[in-house]
Amino acid sequence: MTPADLSRTVLHAVRRAVDEDALRVAVPERVRVERTRPGGSGDYACAVALQLARSAALPAHEVARILKDRIAAAPGIGRVEITGPGFLSLTLDASTDGAARTALVREVAARGTEYGHGTALRGEEPLLPYAAEVRAAVTADAVAALLRSQGAAPRTVATGPADPAWSRLGVTADTAPGHGTAGTAPGHGTTEPAATVRPVPAGAAAAELVERLGPDAARWGLLRAAGHDRAALGDGLLVQSAANPLFLVRYAHARTRALVRSARDLGVHGAPQPHEDAAAYGEPAALALTALLADHPAVLLAAARHRAPDRLARHLEAVAHAFFDFHDACPPLPAGDEKPSAAHRSRTALAEAAGTVLAGGLSLLGVSAPAHV
Predict the structure, then answer these.
(1) 245-364, what's its fold?
(2) End-to-end CA, the chain
(3) Average pLDDT, stretch 154-173?
């Protein structure tokens, strides 16, 4: 069960409570469900009771009590607890959650690098004016890709003269007259005010960055930091070690591809089966990796909505770290005289799903994902 599934489950419980006149509130369009932080209880946490308390004219703890049993009765939910002032702590049913993890891996395989793309922003046509500076240009380009992944039809436009060298970083500049100020895009039907993309400037020109770092490392360096922070554009972006997040992410992707090639040679490559995944995906390292893969669609949507490609970059780093932890704790391939098993097939499928997510995320950032590093 993914966070999106849980969000729908909680919303359904709210609607039931309203229909049964147990709550008198407007049902929200969406509810946020997050992984429980270290030291917390349950698998997921939701603050919907605190969100609804004022409009319901009830204490948040009472709203949580009304929702608790309705959520607990839903398929896939093992236990629901109320913590603090009214947080709902959700624990998944182990058997249902195991099947969900298999379904998740299958979904990633079926959708490929478009896993996580959606239609939540369909019909939106935002204008993205950006400062005539290389970091702003690359950021606007990545934001536009994220928005398109969620169904929007964005338009980017520079607010000043474009640098021809931006094209070496994958940026196609539009500097049509009259499009450099806040407002709406003529002929594009958007109702969203256009706020200029203006991160902290890179302090270097595009040509110099490409010559020194290459387009992939330059784009990563420009996008990884939040817009209000200075971008790290030193030679550390070229270091081949785990201390370099770009290398870590790309190496993790290449390692998953190597595992799949070896699995095919050994005859253990294939989709996981529901009856096989309990042991293969039940280890803590596998649970952590599948949780991050399940969060990927929400990360893409949040990065698009908040115009924050750095969120995706950090998510890819987390996936890469989790993949290596999984690889070490749950080897996908048999070792020595060990015979290939169904567990190896399921683990390889999970590793392949991780690589697919990494490749798709890098593509949205405009960074290549080579099969060999």
Answers:
(1) Isoleucyl-tRNA Synthetase; Domain 1 (1.10.730)
(2) 34
(3) 94
